[in-house]
Amino acid sequence: MTKLITDEQRALLLANGRESIENSHFDPLPVVKLFTPNAGATWLLSELDSEDIAFGLCDLGQGFPELGYVSLTELESLRGRWGLPIERDLYFVADKRLSGYAREARLAGRIVA
């Protein structure tokens, strides 16, 4: 089973979390994209403020993506339709800041990445 985030991603997420505390205008690139393979949910995570609580753009597939916090432990325990776990997009590379993804998601009603 693939880990939700790699050690390298965890280090970058934690660094972004520290920067966010020091700089209220910090607008990082998302570090990792997680998704349910068959349930329409997607998360673009940009920060980690502890070992478990991540911040990013969250889309539960109901047409209302929003910026917010999520527990990695809870994500690891979730299962979509047919019992499939959440996966990490191995090929995701952010091409805009988190605010850009959030703006596009609000207009589209879903994360466009």
Give descriptors for this structure.
113 residues; alpha+beta; five-stranded antiparallel β-sheet; 3 helices; 29% helix; globular
Brief write-up:
By secondary structure, the chain is of the alpha+beta class.
N- to C-terminal distance: 24 Å
Task: Estimate the strand proportion.
Answer: 15-25%
* Helical stretch tally: 3
Shape type:
globular
Overall pLDDT score: 93
How many beta-strand segments?
5
Biggest pleated sheet = 5 strands, antiparallel
Helix content: 25-40%
Cross-sheet strand order for the largest sheet:
4-3-2-1-5
Task: Provide the low-confidence segments as ranges.
Answer: none
Structural class of the helices, strands and pairings?
alpha+beta
Q: Kindly provide the radius of gyration, computed on alpha-carbon positions and rounded to a whole number of angstroms.
A: 13 Å
- What is the H-and-E element order? HEEEEHEH
Structural description of this entry:
There is one protein chain. By secondary structure, the protein is α+β, with helices and mostly antiparallel strands. Helix content is 29%, strand content 23%. Strands 4-3-2-1-5 form a 5-stranded antiparallel sheet. The longest helix is centred in the N-terminal third of the chain and has 16 residues, at 7-22. The chain is globular and about 40 Å long. The two termini are 24 Å apart.
